[in-house]
Amino acid sequence: MPRTLPLSRRRLFSVLSAHSELAVILGGPFSGKTTLVDTWLATDPCPEWAPVVIPEPAHDVTPETYWATVASSLCTSLGVDEPVAAEGSFDSLCSILVRHPRPVMFVLDGVRSVEAIEDRVGQLLRLGPQVRMVVTSRAAGSWAELVDGHPHRTIVGDDLAFTVDETAALCRLFGLARDQRTIEWITRRTEGFAAFVAAVCATQRAEKPDRVYGTDALDVLVDSTVDLVVMHVVAADPSLALSSRSVLVSAAPNTVTESSISALPHIDDSDAFLTALTESGLIEACSTDEDSTDDETAWRYPEVVHRSLLRVGSAEYPKELWDARSALIDYWLQRSRPDIALEHAVERRDWRCAIDIVEKNWVALYGSGSLRSLGIVLLELLPDDMTTNDRTVASLRTITRARNQAGEPEQWAFPRSFETILRLGSLRMQGAYDEAMEVCDGLATEPVPNFETLDDTTRHAHGLKYLNFGTVYLLGGRTTDAGTMLRRAHTAGRGVFVEREAAGKLALLEALRGRTHEATRWIEEELRHPPIMGEAEALIRTAGLVATALVALDRLDTGTAFRALSELGTPRHTEELWAAVMYARGRLALLSGVPADGLLYIDSELQHFSHRLTGISAVLVDAARADLHLALGEARAARELVDSSTHPLTAPARARLRLLGGDPGGAEVIVHRGDAAREHCPAVGAELALIGSVASLRLGRRTDARRHLQRAVVLAEHAGVTRPFVGVPPSAVRDILSLGVDLPIDLDPAMAEYGIFREIRVVVRLTPRERAVLDALLAGGTTSTIAKEQFVTLNTVKTQLRSLYRKLGVHSREEAIAQAHRLVVG
Q1: Residue 654, pLDDT score
Q2: How high is the pLDDT of residue 470?
Q3: How is residue 614 annotated by DSSP?
C-alpha cells in the first residue's frame, strides 16, 4: 500500500490545518488514522514548520525510550547534533526546543502505549506557539481534558470512514478500473474502514487487476481480505495474540461486557482481557437499553470485524472461503507467529494445514515450545491415513517420543541440540560467556554437513545452531571462531531470518576489526533482506546499524554514523550487543568534540548492563571510556580502565595514554607487540603505527618514525579508513608532515575538525641530584663532565642517570633530552 494517498479528504484536512496547536485523531486500528495524516502531510500543509514524524512505538516502550526517539528525530529535522545530556530524554527534548526556536510540528502516531502521553504533550504545548502537535491514538485517554476550552485544539473521531468517491480514488491509485456498483459494494461490505478498503485493492491488484467480479466472488475476496487484516491486528498485539481463541469466542454475542468476558474459557483475568480489547481498538462503547438498571458498560465489535471473527472462529470455516485459508496461514507465518497459526489449525481440525505449518517452521516452533504440546495433540488426533509415509509426521514422532527421566506424560524432552541452544541463550543473557563458549567448544567439533544435500528444515536447523555458536564466540571475544560459525550460519540459514542476522553480525565483526571493505559487503548483504514484522526486527537490526556507524566513523563520516545510531536509539535492557552501541556512541562523541557528553551517556547506561560487563562487552566499553577520559585529560581514569588489558581493541588507547602522558618509549613497546596484526585488525594496526611514528619522533628517531608512518598509510589504505590519522595530538601534525610521506588524508583540516586529543602535562618529581644531572644533560654535558663538575664518581652519575631515565620513561640520553622539553619537571 502506498504511504500517501491523494484522496478527497478536504474537510478533514481543513480541520487539521485550522487547529494550529493540537489535533487528536481517535479511531480503531482499521480507521486509517495514519493514512489520513500521511496524506495530509503529503500536501505540505505547513511549509514553514519543521515536521517531526514519529511512527507508532512498540507496545512495551518506556517513556524514556520514546522521548529519546522524539528528541533524536527532532535533531535530525532541525539539522543539529544530538546532545548526550545528563537530564532525562523528555527534558532534553524541551531543552532542544528552547535553544532552537524554529516552529516545529510533531506528528505522534499510535501513542496509546506511551505512559502519561497527554501530560507530556501538554507540557510541550506550554513551551510556546512554536510547537504544534498532531496525535493519533486508539484510546480516548484524557485527551478531552487537554482540548476542552482551547479554541485552537480539536479531537477528530468521526467520519474517518472512506466515502464511495474516496474508495474509487484509491482503486484508481492501485491501477484498478472498477465500475460504480463494485465500488459501492466494497465500501458497504468494508463499512468504509480505510485499512480494509486498501487491503481489498491490494489483493485485487495482486490477483487479476482487470478481472470483473460477480457478487459472490467479490464477497469472497472482500471477506477473506478482511479476515487477514483482522487477524493481523490480533497477532500484532502481544496482550491479545496468545489469547486469540478467546478473542474469537468473545465475538459470539456481539455485545461485550465484563460479565460476558468473565464467562469465557481460558481467561484467568477478565479485567485485563477487556482492557486489552478496548486498548487495541477492536471494540467500541455502545449505547445500552435505556430501561436497564445495570450500570455495566457495554462494548461492541464493529459489524465488519464481528462477522470476520465469527468466520475465523467457526469450527467449519466457510467453504466459499476455503481457498483463502492458505493466505491466512501465510499471513501468520509472515508475522513470525507460527505457534498461533498451528493452534488455529488444530482447533479447526485442519491436519494438512497443521502439518504444513510444522514442516515450514519447526525451528521457530521448537523455541516457542508449541511442538511439546501441540505436537502430541497432532499425533493423537491425526487420521490414520496421515500417520504413515509422511516425513513431517515422522519428524513429529521423533520430537515427541522421548519422555523425561521422571516419566511424567505431560513433559517431553527437546532434542539435544535445542536444549543446548536454550541453555546458551540463558548463559548469554547472564553474561556467562566463558561457560557458554565451553558448551560451544564441545559441539563445534562435530562434522560440518554438506548443506546443499540437506532438506530445508534440517539445513535451517543447522543455521540456527551455528548462529547461536557464532553469537556466543562474538560476545566472548573469540573473533576468528565467531567469523567461522557466522559464515556457516549464513550459508545454512538461507531463506530464513538466520541468513540476515548472520550477515549483520559478520558486518559488525568486520567493522570492529576495522576491515571496512568487508564490513560494507556484509552490510549490503544484510540490507538485501526485507525488515521483519513485529518486535523481532528490533533484535536483528542492531548489528547492521552499529556496523554502519562504525564504518562511517572510520571514514570520518559523522553524519551517516549519527543517522544510524539515531535510528537504533537507546539499546533495550535485553540487547545483547549493547556494548557495541556504547562503543560506537563513544567514537561519535570523540569525533564530534563532546567527550564529556559521551562519557556521561555511557556511564548512565552501564547501570542497566553491569551484570553483563564481561567478554567483548567489557573490552569495548573500557576502550571507549578510556579514550573519552584521555580526551578530557584524565590520564589516571584511563589507566585504571585499560592499563592491564592485552586486547587489540584497547591497544590504541593504551599506546595513546603513554604518548599523551609523556612516555613515548612505553607507547612504542605497545606498538611493537603486534596484537592488531595477530587478530587481523588493520585499522587498529594503522592507528598503532601512527602513534608509533609520533613516539619515534619524540625519541629523536626519524628513520623509525618514517617506517611507522609508511606502515600506517599502507594499513589504512588497505582497510579503507582515515580515522586513525586524527588520533594523535595536534602538536604532532607538523612533525608527521615533515617526514615526507604521502598521506591518504589532508591532515591539517582533518585535525582542525576532528582532532581532540591533547598533551597531558605530566609532573615528574626529581631529587636535587637527578635535577642537576638533567640540567647538565640539557647543557650538553657527558657522563664524565658531569662527574667532574659535581665532584662524584662515574658510577654515581650512572646510577643517577638510570634513576632519571626510569622517571622520564626513556632509555637513552637523547630520549631524556627530548622528553624533558615536554614534561613539567619539579
Answers
A1: 92
A2: 92
A3: -
Write out the DSSP string of 34-96. Answer: HHHHHHHHHT-S-TTSEEEEEPPPPTT--HHHHHHHHHHHHHHHHT-PPP--SS-HHHHHHHH
- Reported residue count of the chain is 826
Helix, strand or coil for residue 198? helix
The pLDDT of residue 799: 85
Look up residue 76 and give its amino acid: T
Residues 83 and 97: their CA atoms lie apart, in Å, by: 12
3-state secondary structure 270-330: HHHHHHHHHHHCCCEECCCCCCCCCCCCCEECCHHHHHHHHHHHCCCCCHHHCCHHHHHHH
pLDDT tens per residue, range 173-201:
777 777 888 888 888 899 888 888 888 88
Question: 726 and 754 in contact (C-beta within 8 Å)?
Answer: yes
Cα angle value 276/281/285 (rounded, 5°): 95
Identify the residue whose cell numbers are 480494509.
196
C-alpha cell belonging to residue 285:
462503547
| Model confidence band, residue 387 (pLDDT cutoffs 50, 70, 90) | very low
Predicted pLDDT at 157: 77
pTM: 0.51
Cα–chain-centroid distance for residue 397? 38
- Report residue 216 CA to chain centroid gap: 46
What b-and-e string marks burial along 197-207, b requiring 16 or more CB atoms within 10 Å of the CB?
bbbbbbbbeee
Cβ distance 722 to 556 under 8 Å?
A: yes
Do 625 and 582 form a contact (C-beta atoms < 8 A)?
Answer: no
- Residue-wise over 290-314: b if at least 16 C-beta within 10 A, else e? eeeeeeeebbbbbebbbbbbebbbe
From CA 305, how far away is CA 273, in angstroms rounded?
Answer: 18
User: Rounded to a whole number, what is the distance in angstroms from the first to the last CA of the chain?
Assistant: 74
d(CA 484, CA 448): 11
Q: Considering the chain, what percentage of its residues have pLDDT values greater than 70?
A: 76
pLDDT: which is higher, 242 or 588: 588
- In angstroms, what CA-CA distances link 61 with 58, 65, 360, 604? 5, 7, 32, 19
> Which amino acid belongs to residue 595?
P
State the chain's maximal CA–CA distance in angstroms. 120
Q: In sequence order, what are the residues at sequence separation of 6 or more whose Cβ sits closer than 8 angstroms to the Cβ of residue 791? A: none
If pLDDT is split at 50, 70 and 90, which confidence band does 473 have?
very high
Q: Is the pLDDT of residue 294 over 60?
A: no
Q: Residue 362: name the closest of 377, 352, 372 by CA.
A: 372
Burial code (b: 16+ CB inside 10 Å, e: under 16) for 388-400 equals eeeebbebbeebb
Residues 6+ apart with CB under 8 A from 318: 223, 311
